[in-house]
Amino acid sequence: MSATSYYTRWLATAWRASWNAADLVAGLLGLAAPLLIAFLPKQELILARLAWQLPLGVLVALFIIRLCGAPYWMYRDDGQRLAEATARLQALTSASPRIHFEQVWNTQLYQNGVPVYRVLQAWFTNSPLVRSEASIARQVSGVVEIESAGAAFHQFHGQWAQTTAPGHVGFTSTSPTTDIAPNEVPVKLNIALQYDAEQLAYGYAEENLHAHSDGRHPNFALPMGVHRIRVKLRGVGVSQDFRFTLTNYGPGLPLSLDPLGTSGSEELTAG
To answer: Where are the domains of the chain?
Structure first.
């Protein structure tokens, strides 16, 4: 606040109640003056002068007194407004989506009873401090960034598994975005796929599966070794990053995904 704004507010605060008090005195004198003139007719001229001099004197005196108290009243008013704004902000923040990483699943998928590939999923839940309609994270995408030593940088849109079985890895379809309700039902992001007898794993991207129905697109290959993963969740009310290490141990061994940390919320804890 500039000095001009501060002093303007200071004078306005002091003036506001001073005028009300002086107006009250003037009103009382206006009622009392006719009675005094009736009893003291010889003092009519003096009483007429006092009718405006006394309210003016009271106004000036009260204004000076309130000038001294105005800074405190301004401080008190600011404190009340700050407390109200803080309460509103806390209410909004408490109801905001808070996405937590829950666990990792790596499971063999089957189609018509025939094994196809293993899929690596990261499961997330939404646990706001206060649950409300505003807590729903809407249209959340999961961008997967993969950085590997001596390999090209990968970035693709992870696919959310759509299923009515909250505790199963299997799914009926996938989607690049999903809503995350504030409940105990996890949402599942497909990150990678793997064939047991092969050295290479592959990023689970729609572009991969669209071009190669078996998911073996060379541009999405994840060779044996350790890969750094960042999952960027972005949507209405959500902007959080989760970091992992993905390890491809080679043929016959499942991929592992180990959490490192998150940004945009509290420290990451595995469920």
So the answer is: 3-95, 99-263
